[in-house]
């Protein structure tokens, strides 16, 4: 009875605070649209200059390969290379040596110099890959299949076109869910503490588990709805696939939401104002999920200590699971390790939160 | 009459702040007992200790025959509480608030309808049942908070400054409701900053800096006030303009503002002529009257003498 009362009351708070509810749904949509159109991993219009010192038919053929590519725009600007780089009018310079054709004809490997503007390292790496791709394609066509030992044809598995949405929809789901669930639960309890209503709940005959479930269930449902909303937006707006089981996806979303909510309850036992609840929830969920979950930055490239810290971030495991289910069509067996860790996190977190909350409520 | 609450030497510190310095309290069953005192006197702290919301550092306390620290469930089942600030859900309607509190107090569906109807008759809130609590007037908010505190038929009602900021008419109505509850046998522990409300209590505990400085039935306290109280006025002047002069003339005595005049409790001088002689020697044209004390005079004189003792200690 007490549980039903708290659940109904929380739902009324959620529905009547429609402005917050709108923000909760509009925020991920806005982020998704912004990221979807602004964060594009594909680079077009790479300004490139080709210095052909050989001026042979072979060197001109290589030049025409670049001209034919949709990624490159050949620059004919006569200013010095340094100036062109300085003024950001050039992204790369390809220098074909004067013995290029001769080397190729005598089965020697010619050295083609490539200078790339490295001020944006991520962009530089992608440009380098595109240039290598063109050169590889050129040499492959020139020598025939049997004679070339290495023929690199880049192919991005599960995301052949390097579609950004494939990358950020799972990441955004992981980020928004943990933020929203931790923030909402911690703030709803902190609000009651601040207004003094929590003292009245403490003075009632309600059990600690009823308060916890009464607070968790409405926000669990809300968080799952937000999660589904983000995924549907990803599918509808950007064509992100769901190759794995829908049921499994929903179940892991549920587990992940539960982890966030438990974390929110834990925060609520430590703070007494909404402001501190908000700051702690944001700090403890947003930053680690953005930087230490593998959402944006490669964990393998981080110092060992940060890699170790990342083991404590639930989003790290959820990201593997959600990417696996959406993009790779992974089975439960293939994700077993990550699922187990996430489950462990959820149960441990919930256990600690309930224990702390119970003792807070009863004292 | 048995005591529903009995506390001896309650001490409670918050870090370096001594909120209660050995407070004694007796609340007779069926009484309205008032805690009177300025902000920071420790009224809310002792109330929260009674309600088991705070643990005492030392001292003994029995509420409804149990120790609140040891049997929280029993205390919480039989007490109703109205905190100092309005602590209901402003986005819920009157009816929804009542229903929620009945649910968390496990009143039961059938019991709820009956209690709600009774509380509506008692508080006359029924026409506002669909109004959100946040849209109610101050007086109505207090009536709703009181109704919610009563939803589970408590034996003891703890009300922390329930009428602060409420208009005089609503305050009067609220007190009529409290007397009605008292007639039904409910014991009420109430704190108030208003002396007129203190007079409506059966017993009062005057508190200052975590201690009880005076206690008893308000009428008896006034009757037993044996010190000489004088009222001073200078026509055409504000009391703030001459109070310092009076403090100088009656150094060591309790001299304080009371409305548009200055009152002085003079322990050393009882003779009216002597008082008059002393003030006439000053330049100001004082008008002096020996008056009968009111509760406020008693309270302020006790606080001032307590502060003086503290200074000399």
Overview of the structural elements:
The complex is a heterodimer of chains A (about 375) and B (about 325). By secondary structure, chain A is mostly helical. Chain A folds into two domains: about 1-40 and about 165-360, no CATH class; about 45-145, abc type-2 transporter like fold. Helices cover about 65% and strands about 5% of the residues of chain A. Chain A has 14 helices and four strands. Chain A has helices at about 1-15, 20-40, 55-70, 80-85, 100-105, 120-145, 165-195, 195-200, 210-240, 245-270, 275-290, 305-310, 315-330, 335-360, and strands at about 45-50, 70-75, 90-95, 115. Chain A has a four-stranded mixed beta sheet with strand order 2-1-3-4, with helices on one face. In chain A, helix 7 (about 165-195) packs parallel to helix 10 (about 245-270) and helix 10 (about 245-270) runs antiparallel to helix 13 (about 315-330). Chain A is elongated and about 90 Å long. With about 325 residues, chain B is α/β, with parallel strands linked by helices. Chain B has two domains: about 5-220, Rossmann fold (3-Layer(aba) Sandwich), CATH 3.40.50.300; about 225-290, Alpha-Beta Plaits. Chain B has helices at about 45-50, 70-80, 95-105, 110-125, 140-150, 170-185, 195-200, 220-225, 240-250, 270-280, 295-310; strands at about 5-15, 15-30, 30-35, 60-65, 80, 155-160, 185-190, 205-210, 210-215, 230-235, 255-260, 260-265, 285-290. A six-stranded mixed beta sheet of chain B has the order 5-6-7-3-8-9, sandwiched between helices. A four-stranded antiparallel beta sheet of chain B has the order 11-12-10-13, sandwiched between helices. In chain B, a hairpin with a 2-residue loop joins strand 8 (about 205-210) and strand 9. In chain B, helix 3 packs parallel to helix 5 (about 140-150). The model of chain B has no long low-confidence stretch (mean pLDDT about 90). At the A-B interface, helix 1 and helix 8 of A face helix 2 and helix 3 of B.
């Amino acid at each position: 009875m007490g549980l039903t009362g708290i659940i109904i009351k929380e739902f009324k708070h959620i529905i009547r605070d429609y402005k917050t509810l709108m923000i909760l749904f509009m925020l991920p949509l806005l982020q998704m649209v912004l990221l979807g159109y602004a964060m594009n991993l594909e680079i077009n219009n790479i300004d490139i200059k080709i210095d052909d010192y050989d001026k042979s038919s072979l060197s001109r053929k290589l030049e025409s390969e670049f001209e034919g590519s949709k990624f490159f725009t050949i620059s004919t600007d006569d200013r010095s290379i340094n100036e062109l780089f300085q003024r950001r009018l050039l992204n790369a310079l390809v220098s074909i040596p004067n013995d290029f054709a001769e080397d190729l004809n005598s089965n020697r490997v010619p050295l083609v110099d490539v200078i790339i503007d490295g001020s944006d390292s991520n962009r530089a790496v992608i440009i380098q890959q595109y240039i290598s791709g063109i050169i590889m394609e050129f040499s492959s066509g020139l020598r025939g299949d049997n004679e070339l030992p290495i023929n690199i044809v880049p192919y991005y598995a599960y995301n052949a076109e390097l579609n950004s949405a494939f990358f950020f929809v799972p990441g955004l789901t992981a980020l928004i869910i943990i933020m929203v669930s931790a923030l909402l639960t911690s703030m709803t309890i902190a609000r009651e503490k601040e207004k003094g209503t929590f003292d009245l709940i403490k003075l009632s005959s309600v059990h600690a588990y009823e308060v916890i479930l009464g607070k968790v269930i409405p926000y669990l449902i809300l968080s799952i709805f937000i999660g589904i909303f983000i995924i549907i937006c990803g599918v509808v707006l950007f064509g992100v696939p769901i190759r794995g089981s829908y049921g499994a996806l929903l179940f892991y979303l549920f587990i992940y939401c539960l982890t966030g909510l438990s974390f929110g309850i834990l925060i609520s036992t430590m703070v007494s104002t909404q402001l501190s609840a908000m700051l702690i929830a944001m700090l403890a969920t947003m930053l680690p999920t953005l930087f230490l979950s593998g959402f944006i930055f490669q964990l393998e490239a981080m110092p060992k200590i940060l890699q170790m810290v990342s083991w404590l971030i639930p989003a790290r495991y959820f990201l593997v699971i959600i990417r696996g289910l959406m993009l790779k069509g992974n089975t439960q067996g293939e994700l077993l390790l990550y699922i187990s860790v996430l489950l462990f996190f959820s149960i441990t977190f919930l256990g600690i939160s309930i224990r702390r909350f119970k003792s807070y409520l009863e004292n | 009459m048995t005591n529903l609450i009995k506390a001896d030497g309650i001490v409670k510190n918050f870090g370096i702040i001594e909120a209660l310095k050995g407070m004694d309290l007796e609340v007779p069953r069926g009484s309205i007992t008032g805690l009177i005192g300025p902000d920071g006197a420790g009224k809310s702290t002792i109330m929260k200790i009674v309600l088991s919301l705070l643990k005492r550092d030392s001292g003994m306390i029995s509420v409804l025959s149990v120790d609140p620290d040891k049997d929280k469930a029993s205390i919480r089942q039989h007490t109703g509480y109205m905190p100092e600030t309005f602590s209901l859900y402003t986005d819920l309607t009157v009816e929804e608030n009542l229903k929620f509190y009945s649910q968390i107090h496990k009143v039961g569906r059938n019991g709820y309808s009956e209690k709600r109807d009774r509380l509506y008759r008692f508080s006359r809130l029924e026409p506002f049942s669909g109004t959100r609590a946040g849209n109610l007037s101050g007086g109505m908010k207090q009536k709703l908070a009181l109704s919610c505190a009563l939803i589970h038929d408590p034996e003891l009602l703890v009300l922390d400054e329930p009428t602060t900021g409420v208009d005089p008419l609503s305050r009067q109505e609220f007190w009529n409701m409290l007397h009605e509850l008292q007639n039904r046998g409910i014991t009420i522990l109430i704190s108030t900053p208003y002396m007129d409300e203190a007079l409506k209590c059966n017993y009062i505990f005057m508190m200052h800096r975590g201690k009880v400085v005076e206690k008893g039935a308000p009428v008896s306290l006034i009757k037993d006030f044996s010190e000489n109280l004088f009222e001073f006025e200078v026509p055409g002047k504000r009391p703030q303009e001459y109070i310092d002069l009076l403090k100088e003339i009656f150094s060591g005595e309790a001299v304080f503002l009371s409305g548009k005049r200055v009152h002085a409790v003079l322990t050393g001088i009882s003779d009216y002529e002597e008082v008059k002689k002393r003030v006439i020697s000053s330049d100001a044209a004082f008008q002096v009257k020996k008056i009968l004390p009111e509760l406020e005079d008693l309270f302020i004189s006790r606080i001032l003498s307590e502060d003086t003792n503290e200074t000399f200690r």
